Amino acid sequence: TWETDPPAAVSQVTVRDALNQALDEELERDERVFLLGEEVAQYDGAYKISRGLWKKYGDKRVIDTPISEMGFAGIAVGAAMAGLRPVCEFMTFNFSMQAIDQVINSAAKTCYMSAGSIAVPIVFRGPNGASAGVAAQHSQCFAAWYGHCPGLKVVSPWSSEDAKGLLKAAIRDDNPVVMLESELLYGVPFEMSEQAQSKEFVIPIGKAKIERQGTHVTLVAHSRPVGHCVEAAAVLSKEGVECEVINLRTIRPMDIETVEASVVKTNHLVTVEGGWPQFGVGAEICARIMEGPAFNYLDAPAVRVTGADVPMPYAKILEDNSIPQVKDIVFAVKKALNM
């Protein structure tokens, strides 16, 4: 017999399976939801995110499209305006540039331009940022690009729980949501609580999560670099430095209050992202902290850790040196703390 309550059931679920679960549950819950994109149906998805869904829901709900991002994104936006709730998959967000007019000019601006009378409840999702060995045209991060635009909500999950909860929230939201996933995380298993695996589990858009409590320095990241920050925090802990790690989860609207509260406590800030430095997510966080009440609590300048300011090289050793590694985060923390 248990002396206390039995521990909650926790199981290991990959990010891929968490996304699949979210899509399955939302397709079942609301018949207006449908999925479209390249290879999402008969092939089970280029990254197997939509595995089994075409067999289960059929041609009307899971639709293979031609290789024409502008075309199928436009169809999806029109469907959303007409009252459906499309989930539009880009095989990679680099290809969303073919459809950026649909995403920004058609989806993001319509609610405002129609004085609120036309909602566009659509989700644009797919892998974003650096993958492995796919060179410059398939490797950039679009968090800053889409985060720049009013009218969009932009989410960037790290763990399986993030992926499931944010995708469900995005599908239920009446605004266009851009969901930036990491291809390199798809096969990574994370612990998921029983609650996170329930059909009603959603994560509110616009709320960051503190992944690790700390007192000496605040680390803020989104997507895959959150894991690097957690690793760096473990390394630094052995040297007596306790990092507070914040998983942004949402790029727009940004939860700057959670970051401010942490900076007030730790007096130091390091931002980490895979994207380019200029006008990046880290640059925005630093500016918001400088303009707000937490600035007076900083004991040193904030430090940004970003991808290199170059198109992604193809050679593996150059690629590794173009993306933030754990050692880069450790170095940045020591610089911020003047160690």
UniProtKB/TrEMBL annotation:
EC number: 1.2.4.1
PANTHER family in alphabetical order: DEHYDROGENASE RELATED, PYRUVATE DEHYDROGENASE E1 COMPONENT SUBUNIT BETA, MITOCHONDRIAL
InterPro entries xrefs: PDHB_mito-type (IPR027110), THDP-binding (IPR029061), Transketo_C/PFOR_II (IPR009014), Transketolase-like_Pyr-bd (IPR005475), Transketolase_C (IPR033248)
Full protein name: Pyruvate dehydrogenase E1 component subunit beta
Organism expressing this protein natively: Cyanistes caeruleus
Transketolase-like pyrimidine-binding domain span: 13-188
Cofactor names: thiamine diphosphate
UniProt cross-references to Gene3D superfamilies, sorted A to Z: 3.40.50.920, 3.40.50.970
GO cellular component terms listed in the entry, alphabetical order: mitochondrion; pyruvate dehydrogenase complex
Chief location: mitochondrion
Function: The pyruvate dehydrogenase complex catalyzes the overall conversion of pyruvate to acetyl-CoA and CO(2), and thereby links the glycolytic pathway to the tricarboxylic cycle.
